[in-house]
Amino acid sequence: MGLTDQETAIYMALLKTGGLAASLVAKETGLRRTTAYAILKGMAQKGFVSIYVKKGRQLFVAEKPQNVAGYFEAKLKSFTQGIPLLESLEKKQLQTVGLQFIETIDGLKHFYAGILREYRGKSYVTMGNASAWQGLEPEFFIQFRKDRAAAGIHTRLLITLDSSQTSPTDPTLLRVVKFLPSKYTFQSTLEIYDDKILIISPDQTSLAVLIAVPAMVDIFKSTFEMLWDLVPAV
């Protein structure tokens, strides 16, 4: 729910006791009173804590878990209603910037999670080294292939011949594969989508680069189709 360790400890203490003054919260959690008080005020603003006054003293009471859940559901609903506007802003920004650098494997995972949603029932093409791609984090990428197929996403792949050892042949994965001649070897992978290109390489300063420049996307699409027609089927 986005709470820090200290906030979690305070929330649990308040749930167990039914409510405490700041001094007793500090004693219960091992925090300084001033620290506990500041955290309690912040938690009240977030909706996790209510403040009551009893005999001239402030008493902090944990909001019931179901009330907290309802609060976050309302925030999520409000955010969801604003998604169309946010997406329109995002597209404008992407067209302006044109480049995005993905620095970490977690950032790449986040990108692929978006692809599973954005390309459900659609298709895209890839050219590269399947072994190097999968080798970035084998467990994740093996599962991603399955998740991609479950989302009805079809792929065509032009991959290096040495990728054959790690390239699955299961037709349920919705992949059509052609292997490049053995003399063409490289470690990078190029993925071509409708409006963007993703270049993944362990040798880059950044793990991956996302390019959203329409003219470049068109060139790569045409180049892929030309190579696809020239490379014989397996």
Describe the 3D structure:
With 234 residues, the protein is of the alpha+beta class. A seven-stranded mixed sheet has the order 3-9-8-7-4-5-6. Helix 1 crosses helix 2 (22-29). The chain is 50% helix and 19% strand. It folds into two domains: 5-66, Arc Repressor Mutant, subunit A (Orthogonal Bundle); 86-230, Endonuclease, Chain A (2-Layer Sandwich). The mean pLDDT is 89. The longest helix has 17 residues, at 65-81.
Q: What's the CATH H-level homologous superfamily of the largest domain?
A: Endonuclease Chain A
Contiguous runs where pLDDT drops below 50 for at least 5 residues: none
Q: How many β strands by DSSP? A: 9
* CATH architectural designation of the largest domain: 2-Layer Sandwich
CATH class of the largest domain: Alpha Beta
Spatial shape: elongated
Largest sheet: 7 strands, mixed
